[in-house]
Amino acid sequence: MAFAIGPQLLDGCVLAVLSRGDAYGYVLTQQVKAQLDISESTLYPVLRRLQRDGLLTVYDRPYQGRNRRYYAITPVGRTQLDRRRQEWAEFRDGVEELLKEEQQDGQTYLFS
Fold this sequence. Notes:
Blueprint: H1 7-19, E1 23-24, H2 25-33, H3 40-52, E2 56-63, E3 66-73, H4 75-99, E4 102-104, E5 107-109
Helix pairs in contact: 1-4
């Protein structure tokens, strides 16, 4: 079952990947796609928006006679990533609390 991924969560995932090091578009999309069920066409508008908002910078580097466009996280992007990580932890903890199973009198209950 796939869960919908909102823009804030997707932004956080992209920023998290780039916090590990600069990446060009194809590698970045493959790293995100390895964990999330998204299409490549979904990611490029996200990258443009993050760049426009000052969370990423972009630079080109030659590779085998062509330019590769690399993305790098900015200090503002790192601050936003920290915020997204905190929001995710709070959200995750709330969902886990709601979905946890509890044993009571030999019966398993989804909600307490």
